[in-house]
Design brief:
This protein has about 475 residues and is an all-beta fold. It has 1 helix and 32 strands. Bound molecules: beta-D-fructofuranose. It catalyses: Hydrolysis of terminal non-reducing beta-D-fructofuranoside residues in beta-D-fructofuranosides.
């Protein structure tokens, strides 16, 4: 085992004073302090490892470390000591985001070393390598890839093995347009530039594409990016930054032919910088940061900030949609359950008998007449079908009016809508019709007003299925 550092001890002590009002029961989060992007997600030597962008000393973004948790089953997690510190010349202002690969049993991290050159925003970003043979202690090997001439923003390497080579996609900002650059290597240390997989052609596609990911699923090559600087458009792109996917074909010469243009992955308030990895049985799993840059974070005052989304299995369907569904392993968390017979509520609100955390609901759209009907989460949020606007809406409420906004998706064109919902202490994730859409948002119900209730306004709502579970914790010591 690794000796705990000052930073680890600081986090353990700070954890004792965390206010747990919104602290997650079944989402990965730091014990205290700040986290952002998921990094280095991998299954290797019998364990799942998740790392995260971490500032241990305060619940605000600061010089980035890599926090670390492990799991044998992708459900129950254990905190490990911090894996990477910003302590070398080439990463002294932050070990920024990156990925992990299995190099003959050696856990190998490729991440961005960030250096602030002055206080005017000039930076140097290089891709660096660190390795571990025991999965706990890491040795840094320094930079392996430098930015193209004149490019400052060059970060978030995602590395994978295919076609008998190592490949790396890196996000870059070139002339204030985002792009994803592809590199190739035989040994993980010498990299050659292959091509630009895709790039923004106008400023409304983003000035920087962060956290790229590139993988094949259901015989389609999916390019994930997190663009900064896309303006809101109607109901879309409402958050400061977006995360989305393109679909196409990765050609033999390394180039990428885009067939389906950018679509948002999730439609909630808090989903950013997702990264994917391959599970032990070959499934493609994705995890995002359940937070948004520059949004107010009420939990900062409570000693922690940031969590991951639930792991989601990713598929691609014949209608050109990335499907994201919560991994089935999460069923292990289920404890007490209730199933309600099909029922109808009319002009009423019905409080549920317990605080369920997982709900599978089916609303009969065709036979419901209410103008708005759905589920309330105390005084923090309402998830409802708006039958006039024909949208599924998540409205959230907070004393901070900047948080007091809604997110919504068009109602699917069918007579019923299936919702698979996870409600943690301070978040809600809604998966619609087997993952065709999802809405992920942090919510802030007051402690004495968290109860769940079904409601129907000005008419009736028909609920044909309601299976609900309480869930246990993913961390043994909680
Ligand atoms: C995305 C991001 C990355 C960067 C990291 C820094 O959220 O800005 O581009 O590597 O966070 O913490």
């Amino acid at each position: 085992m690794k000796a705990l550092s000052q930073a680890d001890i600081f986090v353990k002590n700070a954890a004792k004073t965390v206010d747990t009002l919104y602290y997650p029961k079944f989402h990965v989060a730091a014990e205290a302090g700040w986290i952002n992007d998921p990094n280095g997600l991998i299954y290797i030597n019998g364990y799942y490892h998740f790392f995260f962008q971490h500032y241990p000393y305060e619940p605000v973004w600061g010089p980035m470390h890599w926090g670390h948790v492990i799991s044998k089953d992708l459900v129950h997690w254990e905190h490990l000591p911090i894996a990477l510190y910003p302590d070398e010349d080439y990463d002294r202002d932050g070990c920024y985001s990156g990925s992990a690969v299995n190099n003959n049993g050696v856990l190998t991290l490729i991440y961005t070393g960030n250096v602030n050159l002055d206080d005017k925003g000039n930076i140097r970003q290089v891709q660096c390598m660190a390795t571990s043979t025991d999965g706990i202690n890491f040795t840094k090997h320094g930079p392996v890839l430098f930015p193209p001439a004149g490019v400052m923003h060059f970060r978030d390497p995602k590395v994978w093995r295919a076609r008998d080579s190592w490949w790396m996609v890196v996000g870059a900002r070139v002339n204030d347009l985002g792009e994803t650059r592809l590199y190739k290597s035989a040994n993980l240390t010498d990299w050659t530039f292959v091509t630009i997989l895709d790039q923004a052609t106008s400023s409304d596609q983003g000035f920087m594409w962060e956290c790229p990911d590139f993988f094949n699923v259901n015989n389609k090559d999916i390019l994930i990016t997190s663009p900064q600087g896309m303006p809101a458009s109607g109901y879309d792109y409402r958050n400061l930054f977006q995360s989305g996917y393109r679909c196409g074909v990765w050609n033999e010469d390394g180039s990428y032919t885009v067939e389906e243009e950018f679509k948002e992955i999730d439609h909630g308030h808090d989903f950013y910088a997702p990264q994917s990895f391959v599970a032990a049985d070959g499934r493609r799993i994705m995890v995002g940061w359940m937070q948004m840059w520059e949004a107010p974070i009420p939990t900062e005052k409570q000693g922690w900030a940031g969590a991951f989304t639930l792991p989601r299995e990713v598929k691609y369907n014949e209608h050109g949609r990335l499907l994201c569904t919560p991994i089935t392993e999460l069923e292990q968390l289920r404890t007490a359950s209730t199933s309600l017979q099909p029922f109808k509520i009319t002009n009423q609100s019905t409080v549920l008998d317990a605080q369920y955390q997982e709900l599978k609901l089916c609303f009969d759209i065709k036979n419901s007449t209410a103008e708005r009907y759905g589920l309330s989460v105390g005084d923090g949020a309402k998830l409802f079908i708006d039958s006039q606007a024909k949208r599924l809406v998540l409205e959230r409420y907070s004393d901070d009016l900047t948080l007091n906004t809604d997110r919504s998706i068009p109602l699917p064109v069918c007579s019923k809508i299936n919702l698979h919902i996870f409600i943690d202490a301070g978040s809600i994730e809604v998966f619609v019709n087997d993952g065709e859409a999802s809405i992920t948002s942090n919510i802030f119900p007051r402690f004495d007003n968290k109860a769940l209730s079904f409601f129907a306004e000005n008419g009736s709502a028909v609920i044909t299925k309601a299976d609900m579970w309480q869930l246990s914790s993913i961390f043994a010591n909680c």
